[in-house]
Amino acid sequence: MKLYTFPASTTCRPVMFFAADAGIKLEYEVIDLMSGKQFDPNFAAVNPNCHVPVLEDGSFRLTESSAILKYLADSVNSPAYPKDLKARAHVNEMMDWFNTGFYHAFGYGMCYPQILAHLKFADEAAQKAVVATSKTHSEQFLKVLDGWLATKPYVCGKEITLADYFGSGIISLGETVGCTLEAYPNIRKWYDRMQSRPNWQATNGAVYQWAGAIKGPSYVHI
Q1: Which of 4, 30, 41, 94 is placed for a possible disulfide with 54 were both Cys, Cβ 3.0 to 4.6 Å?
Q2: Whether residue 206 sits in one domain with residue 98
Q3: Which pLDDT tens digit goes with each residue over 123-133?
Q4: Is the pTM of this model over 0.90?
């Protein structure tokens, strides 16, 4: 199987992380998002959305991180995507939770507009208002997540699931703007637990490199 990816991508890293943990061998083709390679006609023919990740398994192709994770997990019967109907539904629920409201507020509202030039608002007042409002929304989501994690080590219970891989990837975006999560001790413990896994650094190291490269401005953070 082949994965079109970019090492620092928030949605690519969970796929690479899970694949490494599950022992799934993938052929990687790096699409350099920083130089605009996602808009190259050859890649646009692979994914007209011009986004990564993209998984190819022979003639079969998937273009969404959450769907790719589920497909890979099922391909090796991973317990990280349980077969039990209710347990699986809970994993799906939490992956959707991370991918919709939380990522919209935390990623596209608070983090990306501060670190990606093409997502910054030309009007300074609008930029400040959006980032501040998104920080407030993110804190509301984080408070809920911290409560969920108060009685269990992983997002869906006692065992690691795809929701942890996916969610920790989105949370890790906060590294770029200096988020510490100190106000959310249960999230902090969970995130530290994910970071301690053997394959974390190999598959998520690029986010720390990115954070180091753009360190300097006083970012709005949590």
Answers
A1: 4
A2: yes
A3: 999 999 999 99
A4: yes
Joined tokens for residue 34: 């920083």
Instruction: Select from 75, 101, 133 the last residue of a domain.
Output: 75
Amino acid at 58: G
Q: How many CA atoms lie within 13 A of 12 on its CB side?
A: 25
143 half-sphere exposure, CB direction, 13 A CA radius? 6
Is 191 within 8 Å of 145 (Cβ atoms)? Answer: no
Nearest to 48 by CA among 58, 35, 61, 29: 61
Boundaries of domain holding 106: 85-213
pLDDT tens profile 139-152: 999 999 999 999 99
Q: Are residues 29 and 112 in the same domain?
A: no
Q: What does the alpha-carbon distance between residue 154 and residue 158 come to, in Å, rounded to a whole number?
A: 6
Does residue 167 lie in a domain region? yes
| CATH number of the domain to which 202 belongs | 1.20.1050.10
